[in-house]
Write a structure and sequence with these properties.
By secondary structure, the protein is an alpha/beta fold.
Length: 109
């Protein structure tokens, strides 16, 4: 979670977090869910290229993480940000790798 503070930005003033990447694993969902609770986010949305497994969908439901499948996750995330952002509702967009550090888990996805 230190990545959010390195650039001087914090999620504390955000209401929605969108993460994008190629694929989403259970570990990603857990970490994303932790961030949602920690920063009291209204919505946590993962935009990915590959369809996740049913177990990942089940964990996403438990952690209130929305999943969107897209051929171009980064562009879709940016478009979604423009669509959802309002003066009283800041939206953050991050790479999945920034949201969930997989290096400690040995989980490639």
């Amino acid at each position: 979670m230190g990545l959010f503070k390195k650039k001087g930005k914090s999620l504390s003033d955000h209401k929605i977090l969108i993460a994008y990447g190629d694929q989403l694993g259970i570990f990603d969902v857990w970490e994303f869910g932790k961030l949602k609770k920690k920063f009291d986010l209204e919505r946590a949305i993962a935009v990915v290229k590959k369809k996740p497994t049913e177990k990942v969908y089940a964990e996403a439901d438990k952690n209130s993480v929305e999943i969107i499948i897209s051929n171009n996750p980064r562009q879709h995330a940016e478009n979604l940000k423009r669509e959802l952002e309002a003066p009283d509702k800041k939206v953050g967009v991050k790479k999945l790798e920034e949201v969930a550090d997989r290096s400690l888990s040995q989980d490639p996805c």
